[in-house]
Design goal:
The structure holds two protein chains of two kinds.
Chain A lengths: L3 H20 L8 H21 L1 H5 L1 H29 L4
Chain B lengths: L1 H21 L2 H29 L1 H10 L5 H21 L3 H8 L5 H12 L1 H20 L1 H7 L3 H6 L8 H8 L4 H25 L1
Helix pairs in contact in B: 2-6, 3-11, 4-5, 4-11, 5-6, 5-7, 5-11, 6-7, 6-11
Classes of the chains: A mainly alpha, B mainly alpha.
Chain lengths: 92, 202
């Protein structure tokens, strides 16, 4: 049911959180630069996978359109749900 | 930050395109598999560490009180319903569509994570949906705040702890700052868990 990669991904998050929690009393740690490097490498390799797939490149307009619809609905329902929740719970 | 990310995306896309034409299959395996998987694991580890290190988060959560949890809960519910309905309307895999909307705007995570689990097509959608979410929040903040004072916080999702926070505070006032940060923080931790959980269910 679980493949190894999914377990590895959750483990990375949890181990990172525990690490951070244990180190939080130590001197200020600067993770910003490491994060930027990791994100740039990650997005480059995602771009590489997309660019390598010519079928995927051809269907980009359709994928972009579906993304617009998904974003619009996700944002709309989020705003409506929060507005409704705010009527039940006073948040100030 | 977004400049570097877009430059990396375009550079990666061009490199991948050229490589598929007259490059080596080895480069493709190295970049698309090893580099991709390891940097994704590294991102989750580094971000997990950042969450654990954040002393401010606990203090802000205490200040806001536990009722603040209704905001991220409502955003998560709304995002997933949005994913469900849009997946159904567009005739796509409904679970994949929900998973991608479960990135709550954190596109540097949702794109690669969806790509890793569901393939490059959903990786592209995950990136686009969540990048658009951040851009819409910034572009439409003055409209959103008129719908509801917490409208920009709802739209921003996970991004309200950092990238969209300055804009939100400017339009919603400083008294929304703590709520926006706490909601964004909780949704940021929830995003990888949501995506992995939903994709595992299929």
């Amino acid at each position: 049911m679980f493949d190894l990669s999914v377990v590895a991904l959750i483990a990375a998050l949890v181990v990172g959180m525990v690490f951070g929690w244990l180190l939080r009393q130590k001197r200020q740690m600067r993770l910003d630069r490491v994060t930027v490097v990791v994100i740039v490498v990650l997005i480059f390799s995602l771009g590489f996978s997309i660019g390598s797939n010519s079928e995927l490149l051809e269907s980009m307009p359709r994928i972009g359109l579906s993304a617009v619809v998904m974003t619009a609905l996700a944002v709309t329902f989020s705003v409506v749900f929060v507005a409704l929740a705010r009527r039940k719970v006073k948040l100030g | 930050m977004i400049k570097y990310i877009l430059a990396a995306l375009v550079a990666g896309g061009v490199a991948g395109y050229l490589n598929s034409g007259f490059g080596s299959p080895l480069a493709s395996v190295v970049v698309s598999d090893y580099l991709f998987n390891w940097s994704l694991v590294a991102l989750l580890f580094v971000m997990g560490m950042a969450f654990g290190l954040d002393r401010e988060a606990v203090a802000k959560f205490k200040r806001a009180g536990s009722k603040i949890l209704v905001v991220p809960a409502a955003v998560a519910g709304g995002s997933l319903l949005g994913g469900l309905v849009s997946g159904w309307v567009l005739g796509l895999d409904v679970f994949a569509s929900m998973a991608v909307c479960g990135g709550y705007g954190w596109y540097t995570l949702a794109g690669p994570l969806a790509g890793q689990i569901l393939g490059a097509e959903w990786g592209a959608r995950g990136l686009a949906v969540n990048l658009l979410r951040e851009l819409v929040t910034i572009a439409a903040v003055s409209l959103l705040v008129r719908v509801d004072r917490y409208g920009p916080v709802a739209a921003g999702g996970a991004t309200t702890m950092d990238t969209t926070l300055p804009v939100i505070v400017r339009y919603c006032g400083t008294d929304v700052l703590v709520a926006a940060f706490v909601s964004g923080f909780i949704l940021s931790i929830a995003a990888p868990i949501t995506i992995i959980t939903i994709t595992t269910l299929t």
